[in-house]
């Protein structure tokens, strides 16, 4: 009888929590529309930055789930509770004390957030709570509504509030909120030392920074792609500079005197319609779906094609993404209709690819044969490539790059020439502030399709690039050919970045520049060891994750300082580039030189 009461209580709690969701399938959209601007979405995957991954919606227990709650899942849970009631009710098993999951991997988004929460609550306090087994014990109930005041904006772009003293040390992270704002939130999922607070209404706005009329996307406030559309460009650049400052404070132990003044973040010429790759996704039809649901090609409510809802694994249906280029949006619109029509032919969820490309049907050699008529419509026409294995191409500065559409290439080509020019300027400064000599050799590690190796090649006598992806190396070789760089001068190798040093033994380290542009996790120990053994005069470290960059730069500087003999690296320049406007992501370029 007692167990039955327990089930009934749980069932009632559950119904109370999900009633708003059942009233509207787009629960979070409704919630956000109360007070936050309705606007736009985006994003994508892998090593490059803003990431929206396709994930299956799977909700098992009330405690585990976070809004929004899809109706079909709610029904499933109700059925299972009812069948438990009618069956021979077994005594619920005593819950085993759950062991806390391991700490997040260093330098990941989860780790950065945890470190920032530790900093706010106090490391000792957090350690005490953790030892007492309370790191995942939220003082709030799931679904509870509370008012919170935002203390700061985290590096991932969400506001962080601290729970009042009587609740104990705890944080609430609130997407789309700003420092100083008071927000009414609905408590969602719990993580290590924090709860997610879904914003319902901003009671006190930070009018100095926020102007909701800036928002250009109707999905903004719900979609997980953008965080900053309500801010001016200038504020976004300042926040990103601050992310670099914090990263070097937290992830390097370099003294302040060893960190140069961090320059202002370089603005992207395009702040909307800049993104050259998007990867929206959708799930196969749910079990309850019927073919008649797709009447006259109309999209049924259960079909969501788009990106993830912020802080959630569920998909938000998105018709267009204003930060993506127009050719991507045009193709995506057409495909949405086709997918809807054929949705019952999909047996699995799908992640789509949209890549902006110069028209690949035009002969590339012809494009690069002088005189290059850059004004010709045919040569500058952009198309959308959707086949992962097809070739995409773009012009960066005076160089043409081809690559496999599904492979890596930077996603904002409007700002790339500025970043490449900045790297050129850093290298040139060797002649004045460094060795006083022109560096003659370049090693481009993690080179992808050869962006830096090729763009910088005119500055050097010899260039070598290395990259793990064989298809990217094929592209890099072809790009050297397309841009008429001889194989005597430039070579590319497929393999682990650390292997390059064995192949460039004839490169004079004192006249060599090494460019490092690793994936988000940064460099591994074998790479750092080989780099430090080789000891090039100049290192330019480009990164889409300033936290792993700060850790690696620290290792490079301190390990040469610890070595009493010989020269030491100095961090000479640090600057952010806004490759991802409207989001919290920043690309960072560091210069290290041996003295
Ligand atoms: C951030 S991308 C940079 C690519 C290139 N520099 C560019 O800007 O286009 C990082 C690249 O590192 C490659 N990569 C990942 N792990 C690697 C490893 N252990 N050794 C060499 N390359 C690696 C990835 O395939 C990816 O192309």
UniProtKB/TrEMBL annotation:
List of catalytic residues: 544
Domain of life of the native organism: Eukaryota
Family recorded in the similarity comment: Belongs to the class I-like SAM-binding methyltransferase superfamily. RNA M5U methyltransferase family.
Pfam families from the UniProt entry: TRAM (PF01938), tRNA_U5-meth_tr (PF05958)
Residues the record lists as binding S-adenosyl-L-methionine: 410, 446, 467, 517
Keywords, sorted A to Z: Methyltransferase, S-adenosyl-L-methionine, Transferase
Keyword Disulfide bond: no
GO molecular function per UniProt: tRNA (uracil(54)-C5)-methyltransferase activity, S-adenosyl methionine-dependent
Stated name of the protein: TRAM domain-containing protein
One Gene Ontology term from the biological process aspect of the record: RNA modification
Domain TRAM: 139-201
Family annotation (InterPro entries): MeTrfase_TrmA_AS (IPR030390), MeTrfase_TrmA_CS (IPR030391), NA-bd_OB-fold (IPR012340), SAM-dependent_MTases_sf (IPR029063), TRAM_dom (IPR002792), tRNA_(uracil-5-)_MeTrfase (IPR025795), U5_MeTrfase_fam (IPR010280)
